[in-house]
Specification:
The protein is mainly alpha-helical. The chain contains 51 helices and 16 strands.
Length: 1437
């Protein structure tokens, strides 16, 4: 609890040392203050400002706001009185000058004419009270000085007449005009009374130290309540206060602090010129502050001597509590003196907000040193919080906790800040229980103190502090619900309770008149809950079993409650605007933070209403689907997962029709079809007949248009000064979100204004067959004749006439749909420039799925490609947020960028922001990968980064539809002509995401069963294999077969059997994260396009932009060649009694490869018999090698955790090949034990897609070409470019590695499978691919020759397409990818040929002494981590 601010000293040290005349002057001034004459001067207004500032700290409600405005008003009057005094003095001086001139003229006349003695009249008037001449009475000059007219003008120091710097004329200093006039007036006795003071007068600040502390708290309160404009006069007063301190170092520090705050507040109000001028002033002064530290050494020494003289320990601190009182009462603190460390402490806080972390640390450390010597425990508590914030900014959360653990006797505000910092630190360290305990204990202590207090009601500070803690508790609950499973009704109850808590919190803030705090708290809560609901919507759609009792009806109810939260907050929003936005005197080109906050609330109001409409539609669709599925017969086959066969265009047919001979089945299907068609017609009629309620959408558009227009204009003005190619340009996130929501609402409104149509459905509806349409038209004419109607009244012509009418109406002006598209495109560009990927994803979802459809295939394909790239970047950010250590330099810098972007409207004008962004741009490949806007257009990427005649297919699932976009690159030729020759095709089919997810889960379960079964059995269970094949066929029937014919007819114009120069030669898959586990490369529908044996024709990647980035990343510096081998890290390979005694173990293979000089760096290569390699050992090997190989049991990431992997800089590596996932009893037990020790969160971090995305953005070389070759290349992604031998690299590697053994039993036992001739043949073929790279003595060697129980991933320089390809085997659990880390494959099957044909897991062999390895191989992973420039070609090898 804050104690009394009454000082313990009678006056300041400066007053004790002042002269007797100064004391008498102050005494007279005090007497005048007591009488309080009708005329007030600067010192009176300064005292009134302090009084009302202190009153605002003690009050609440409207009294608080009134006191704050009054304090700011008296700060204005402080300078206004000075200006008035200067103008009055100037008038008096002018009259005096005229009087003197008249006297001189009279004397001259008297000297010339002695006969005329006339004495000129003396005009005293105001000066002496005597009568003036008529000419002098009429004399009036225009006022020379004036105060700023508008509050915004107070931010510009150049408009302060009292702050004009003095001029220099040689060695003589000439006073500024205002000060010179007041000085002349004082010398001429024109200023009446001894108590007359003005700005710059030595006595205008009676208590400078107390004024400093009061103004500091006043500025905090003004900013807290949104009174940013009213803070500028107070900052001007603080700058004037700096001149009252005689010590130059202290005066400079105070002025620097005021300028720091002035530049930040001016920037938040979009006053760029004023902010830049203030930044220029503090930038130079801040650099000189550390040099002044030594000037206070004498003061510190005097304090230490004084302590020693009193017999106190130098380490002793002042007491926390008043002794002798029965209650905890904070000890009073002295404010009669101002110490430099108090100013430095305030400056360190401000430096954190400016991103000047190093200077903040320097100032905080020096302030702590001084505070300890002075024994100032109160300031040490404040500095401990500052140090914790600095440690948090650097990712050192343990240090943050350590800084706060010894803090005691904190007041409410400090306790709230400490609790929030501790909660965040414990959350980051994975200790949520301690975080909850810190918040709970702090809130309990606050409530207990409030109950024991004698005050009638809590003041605003106490309410604000308590609400800070409660708001953090609510956020913790929402975070917990986001990762928790919806197992019982408790999940729903907890979310309901959070709504109640947030409502109580908002009511408390509003009653305390904390309007800005409430609006900000409600916006944060709505953001968190909206993200939670969107996540659960996706879970319900794809995996209804995992969400338990949660349904779309619950989500609709929660969305409605979110709308209620926003609606109830509008009262505080209106009050905030009424208080914080002046009704007049504000420039039109500025936006106050209060207005920005109100615009954000409007944005989230419209988004919550849109979310509620979406959930309501999903709930109705779910009810309809349930009713339809209940009336249908189960699909063909007892194990069918897909309830119906999808059709192109967004519809879904009934269950597969049985043979015509089965009349009963035919009748059932016919009845089902008739019922389904009847329901469709019924729903269509209802939509036509029921009046559409567009009021909500129209109101949302109007509401959001105002906010978006205001923010957009300001942002455009801010960015106009920046160059177009400036890498740091960007728009505030609030502006981007407003534009995105406005565009989506405009598109929705355009769809609703089209009567009887669904925008998405109509744009994706396929055109009718002309022959079928002609037949239907003829039949309709006959029907009209039979019904005695006009034969020309055809339904098709009526619809065409309606479409023509709509097109004609739209041609008269710009349609709402075109406006929506333009708005979304503008928002997309802004979001990509600022790296706001969530907003960019929402904009692209509307553009790709709703805006164009089949009407413009090229635009739809490009937006689908953009959507996939943005989603990959968003996932990469989330994954790195989880995996990167908290103190990692790249993570710290990115976090600093995000904080500055969230705090500053235009952060690119900050020197700290530009410095960090420039460093990341140069040193961080991950940051470079996030800059999608730097890449060329999609059409140029297709023609420059993708080989000729490559069919690029993107597959994405959204809202129970599979969207397929395809583009085929033209043959080689003129680059300008090739851009127009790219062919595009888009389509979509309906697919139930829940059914597709169930199919993939069952496939994964079968693979796990196969792996467990093969630990004890040497044969694959044929029953499980049959189930796997059946699931594979169902997935292909549901996803690919409905669209494969469209692909063939569009890109193979003359059919598959006719060779044509424009036919595609290879295919690149771009599946989204949901479809990534499916082995599209092994689907028979795709294999038929290029031939079942042409496995090298397939490849896959994450996105088109990621592929283009690899080709445009410059290669790193070349290192000397060094290859290392890590073998059997845990020494688990041992010969069993039934094995051939002459067989080799893995460690024996390691020794042979090292002795044969296949591995060049034998000293640093390790195997399990030498030692058990630790993660640090593996990291050293990765750092010192250019080619790294690993051979062992289990997953490679059981030896090197993924958190260690993502921190490595592996740009120097040319090849990393991992031969793992073999299993024996020891390896399986070790892997199972390690998995059991991991939490669910850690296990999720090792899933395939996550590490695939991470590996595509780890700091490794990007100019790589990887070829993945497996024993069964179910999804091998070889490079398409031909090699020097005339064959593609994929084909070469396939022939090198994919060899068959003579007998089936050889796949499951250790034996001598490969003679030396075969080993050398394999090695020769692989080296042919690696030609031009490493020394020919190096290579895969014996490891590559072992019978296909491992995968090979190599980098090869094509000289043409240095792209990285990721491969994936059917039924595989990918470890990593992105071209750097390849996939793994579970299990083996006895027949190698069958595995190649069907894509089933295949079991690896035990190989003999010529390059074999022991153990049953259920999974192997091959990763190609990156490659550097080759020795000959300059590219990776």
């Amino acid at each position: 609890h804050t104690g009394s601010r009454a000082g313990s000293h009678a006056g300041s040290r400066a007053s004790r040392k002042s002269s007797i005349a100064s004391k008498l002057s102050k005494q007279k001034k005090a007497e005048e203050d007591e009488t309080l004459s009708h005329q007030l001067y600067a010192h009176n207004y300064e005292a009134l400002c302090r009084i009302y500032a202190t009153r605002s700290r003690l009050g609440s409600g409207n009294e608080l706001h009134s006191s704050l405005l009054s304090a700011s008003h008296f700060a204005v009057r402080f300078f206004a009185s000075t200006v008035d005094l200067a103008n009055t003095s100037a008038q008096k001086l002018a009259i005096g000058d005229m009087e003197a001139a008249q006297e001189q003229a009279a004397q001259a006349a008297a000297a010339d004419d002695e006969s005329k003695s006339r004495r000129p009249s003396r005009l005293i008037g105001v000066l002496g009270g005597k009568k003036k001449d008529a000419d002098l009475e009429a004399c009036y000059i225009v006022p020379s000085f004036q105060t700023p007219l508008n509050l915004a003008d107070w931010a510009d120091g150049n408009r302060w007449p009292w702050a004009v710097k003095p001029e220099q004329k040689g060695d003589e200093e000439v006073l500024a005009p205002l000060k010179e006039i007041l000085s002349r007036a004082e010398q001429g006795d024109f200023l009446i009374g001894d108590g007359c003071t003005w700005a710059g007068h030595p006595d205008c600040f009676a208590r400078p130290a107390l004024t400093f502390h009061t103004l500091a708290t006043l500025l905090d309160d003004l900013e807290e309540h949104g009174y940013h404009l009213w803070a500028f006069p107070v900052l001007a007063l603080q700058l004037q206060l700096a001149e009252a301190f005689e010590r130059p170092a202290l005066s400079t520090a105070i002025a620097c602090l005021a300028n720091l705050r002035l530049s930040r507040l001016a920037s938040e109000c979009r006053l760029d010129d004023a902010a830049a001028a203030a930044a220029t002033r503090w930038a130079e002064a801040l650099k000189q502050i550390p040099a002044t530290f030594s000037s206070f050494d004498d003061e510190l020494e005097a304090v230490r001597n004084q302590k020693a003289g009193r017999g106190n320990d130098n380490e002793a601190l002042e007491p926390d509590w008043v002794k002798g009182s029965g209650k905890h009462v904070g000890s009073p603190w002295s404010c009669s003196e101002l110490h430099a460390y108090e100013v430095w402490a305030a400056m360190s806080k401000e430096c954190i907000l400016h991103g000047e972390v190093w200077m903040a640390c320097t100032l905080a450390d020096e302030a702590i040193k001084h505070a300890k010597d002075h024994g100032d425990r109160r300031m040490l508590r404040d500095l401990a919080i500052t140090k914790a914030r600095l440690a948090r900014a650097e990712g050192r959360y343990a240090e943050s906790i350590k800084s706060l653990k010894d803090v005691t006797a904190a007041d409410d505000e400090q306790a709230a800040k400490i609790a929030c910092l501790l909660a965040e630190a414990y959350q980051k360290k994975g200790q949520p229980s301690l975080a909850d305990s810190a918040l709970r204990d702090t809130l309990h202590a606050m409530q207990t103190a409030a109950r024991e207090s004698t005050a009638r009601q809590q003041d605003a500070r106490q309410i604000r502090s308590e609400c800070m803690v409660r708001s953090e508790q609510v956020s913790a609950v929402v975070r917990r619900l986001r990762v928790a499973l919806v197992a019982t009704q408790d999940w729903v109850s907890d979310l309901q309770m959070s709504f109640s808590t947030q409502a109580d919190l908002g009511d408390g803030l509003h009653s305390a008149a904390l309007f800005r705090r409430r609006v900000a708290a409600d916006i944060d809560y709505v953001k968190n809950v909206a993200a939670l609901l969107e996540q659960k919507r996706l879970d319900i759609t794809r995996d209804p079993v995992s969400v338990g009792v949660l349904t779309f009806d619950h989500l609709e109810q929660f969305a409605d409650q979110l709308c209620t939260v926003v609606f109830s907050c509008k009262v505080s929003r209106d009050a905030l605007l009424a208080h914080a936005v002046p009704s007049e005197g504000v420039h039109g080109d500025i936006v106050l933070p209060a207005e920005d906050l109100a615009a954000q609330l409007d944005t989230w109001e419209t988004r919550c209403m849109s979310m509620r409409r979406g959930f309501l539609n999903l709930a109705r669709e779910a009810q309809r689907s349930s009713a339809d599925l209940a009336g249908r017969q189960p699909g063909a086959g007892a194990g069918a997962l897909f309830s119906a066969v999808p059709t192109v265009g967004g519809t879904r047919s009934i269950d597969p029709v049985k043979p015509v001979g089965d009349r009963e089945a035919l009748a059932q299907n016919l009845d089902s079809w008739l019922e389904s068609a009847g329901n469709d017609i019924k729903h269509a009629d209802e939509r036509k007949q029921v009046a559409r309620n567009m009021a909500e959408v129209e109101t949302s558009v109007a509401l959001l248009a105002n906010a978006a227009t205001m923010l957009q204009c300001v942002s455009a003005g801010e960015r106009s000064e920046l160059k177009e190619e400036d890498a740091l340009r960007g728009m505030p996130s609030s502006s981007v979100e407003a534009l995105v929501e406005l565009g989506r609402l405009q598109l929705e409104l355009a769809a609703r204004q089209a009567p009887g149509k669904s925008a998405r459905g109509s744009k994706w509806a396929t055109a009718a067959d002309p022959y079928e349409a002609a037949g239907m038209e003829c039949a309709e004419r006959y029907s009209n004749i039979l019904a005695s109607k006009n034969p020309a009244d055809l339904l098709g012509r009526v619809g065409a006439a309606t479409a023509d009418a709509e097109e004609e109406a739209n041609s008269e002006g710009i349609s709402m749909e075109e406006v929506a598209k333009a708005t979304l495109c503008e928002a997309l560009r802004a979001a990509l420039s600022a790296r706001h990927f969530p907003s960019a994803k929402r904009a692209l979802q509307a553009l790709a799925l709703d805006a164009y459809g089949l009407r413009c295939p090229e635009a739809t394909f490009e937006f689908l490609a953009w959507l996939q790239s943005v989603d990959a970047c968003a996932r990469a950010e989330d994954f790195f947020e989880e995996l990167l250590p908290e103190g990692h330099g790249e993570r710290v810098q990115l976090q600093l960028l995000r904080e500055l972007e969230a705090r500053w409207p235009c952060p690119s004008k900050l020197a700290s922001y530009r410095s960090v962004a420039k460093r990341l741009q140069l040193e961080s490949p991950r940051f470079q990968r996030l800059r999608l806007q730097d890449l060329p257009p999609i059409s140029e990427i297709l023609t420059t980064s993708v080989p000729a005649l490559t069919l690029v297919v993107t597959l994405q699932v959204h809202d129970n539809f599979l969207y397929l976009g395809a583009a085929c690159t033209p043959p080689d030729g003129d680059p300008t002509l090739r851009l127009s020759q790219v062919r595009h095709m888009v389509t979509r089919i309906s697919v139930q995401e829940s059914e597709l997810n169930a199919c993939m889960q069952k496939m994964m379960q079968i693979k796990v069963s196969l792996e467990k079964d093969m630990i004890t059995s040497a044969e694959v269970d044929e029953t499980l294999a049959g189930k796997y094949l059946d699931l594979l066929a169902q997935a292909e029937d549901a996803l690919i077969k409905p669209v494969i014919q469209d692909l063939v007819s569009h890109f193979w114009q003359y059919g598959l059997n006719i060779e044509h120069p424009s036919n595609p030669k290879q295919l690149l898959f771009l599946p989204d994260a949901f479809l990534w586990p499916l082995p599209f490369e092994r689907f028979a529908s795709f294999s038929a396009l290029f031939g079942s044996s042409n496995t090298a024709a397939f490849a896959r990647d994450f996105s088109l932009h990621l592929l283009a980035q690899r080709t445009r990343t410059p290669p790193p510096t070349v290192r000397p060649s060094a290859s290392m081998l890590l073998t059997d890290s845990f020494n688990e390979d041992r010969l069993r009694p039934k094995d051939d005694p002459k067989s080799e173990t893995m460690c024996m293979v390691h020794k042979r490869l090292v002795e044969a000089k296949v591995i060049s760096n034998a000293e640093k290569s390790l195997h399990g018999q030498m030692l058990t390699a630790s993660p640090e050992d593996i990291k050293v090997m990765l750092t010192d090698s250019t080619m790294f190989f690993a051979l062992g049991f289990g997953r490679f990431f059981s030896a090197l955790d993924s958190r260690h992997f993502v921190t490595q800089d592996l740009r120097h590596l040319k090849l990393v090949a991992i031969f793992h996932r073999a299993q024996n009893d020891d390896g399986f037990r070790r892997q199972t034990k390690r998995d059991s020790m991991k939490s669910i969160r850690q296990q999720v971090q090792c899933i395939s897609m996550k590490l695939c995305v991470v590996s595509s953005r780890t700091p490794m070389s990007s100019t790589t070409r990887s070829t993945s070759v497996s024993l069964y290349p179910t999804s091998s992604n070889p490079m398409f470019a031909p090699s020097g031998a005339g064959r593609g690299h994929g084909e070469l590697l396939w022939h090198a590695v994919a060899r068959q053994l003579p007998g089936r039993r050889l796949h499951h036992a250790r034996h001598r499978a490969h003679p030396r001739e075969l080993e050398h043949s394999v090695l020769r073929d692989i080296r042919q691919v690696l030609a031009g790279g490493e020394d020919r003595r190096e290579g895969i060697g014996g490891c590559a020759c072992s019978e296909r129980e491992a995968r090979v991933s190599v980098c090869a320089d094509s000289g043409r397409w240095p792209a990285t390809w990721q491969h994936r085997a059917l039924g595989s659990q990918e470890e990593t990818c992105g071209g750097r880390l390849c996939s793994t494959t579970r299990g083996r099957r006895g027949s190698l040929a069958a595995a190649l044909s069907h894509g089933l897991p295949h079991r690896g062999p035990r190989v003999g002494p010529h390059g074999g390895r022991r153990g049953r191989c259920q999974e192997e992973e091959v990763m190609q981590l990156g490659a550097r420039a080759g020795r000959h070609s300059g590219r990776s090898s």
